[in-house]
Write a structure and sequence with these properties.
This protein is mainly α and about 80 residues long. It contains three helices and no strands.
């Protein structure tokens, strides 16, 4: 995947996280992602750092969804 594509995926994952936290009141815990201190807007960060950020944020979103499936009611907007 090209760096520009990774940055785009990074932006999309951040948007999903923001949506879940804002609209669904779901806290997405992502300490590994946050420790990287790489925002999607950091276009001068290396491709590798964006790739790591994408994987860590995607994993955190997946873990949050799995936790929702285990015992909480389904996440719904509105």
């Amino acid at each position: 995947m090209r760096k520009q594509e990774l940055i785009h995926v990074h932006e999309l994952l951040v948007a999903v996280r923001s949506f879940l936290e804002r609209e669904c009141s779901v806290r997405v815990e992502a300490p590994g992602y946050e420790a990287l201190s790489v925002e999607p807007s950091a276009v001068y960060a290396s491709k590798r750092r964006h790739e790591t950020a994408v994987f860590r944020l995607a994993a955190a979103l997946g873990d949050t969804r799995a936790e929702q499936d285990e015992g909480s009611p389904a996440v719904t907007a509105g």
